[in-house]
Design goal:
Distance between the termini: 32 Å
Oligomer: single chain
CATH class: Alpha Beta
Shape: globular
Structural class: alpha/beta
CATH architecture: 3-Layer(aba) Sandwich
Number of helices: 8
Strand content: 15-25%
Number of strands: 7
Number of domains: 1
Amino acid sequence: MQKARFRGIKIGVVMTGSHCTIGEVIPQLKRFKEEGAEIYPILSYTVDEVDNRFYRVEDLKKQLREISDKPIINSIVAAEPIGPHKLLDLVVVLPATGNTIAKMANGIVDTPALMAIKAHLRNQRPVVIAISTNDALGINARNLGSLLNMKNIFFVPFGQDNPLEKANSLVADMEQVVDAALYALQGKQIQPILLGAY
């Protein structure tokens, strides 16, 4: 019997520019859909506009259109109504770059991704962060700490992906995104949040 734990749940999936991680995101979106969620794709300017060695933008958008029948939100103007119209039940930032985390922690809203997060948080609704950044344990550690203590912010469990060569790098375990989202809808942080190096 197929699970439907997210039936009727509207999820805004905010994708930011950790390009190397995007390939791990698509299977999680499919899992959300299979479990009944309505997916609203929200792209940072970088993800929306920049071809890179991991994917072409048009190919990514084609995949998103196959998963979701909702229009892609790729402007600040389009993201702003998320707040006043209470459009979403949950926002998942997947992946969340160090740049996005730093701006979130300091109240900077200058991309569609950040506007979507800010607009959603005004409704006291949960945001789940799947971190993917090379500087999480460096200068960005203070921003990570701020978000870990912020109301309605939850994290996908994360660990060092390459501690010997990239000691400051942290990456979320993308296989736990769906379960972390389910916990967040109940106002809970999935545990353990810290993983060993993997």
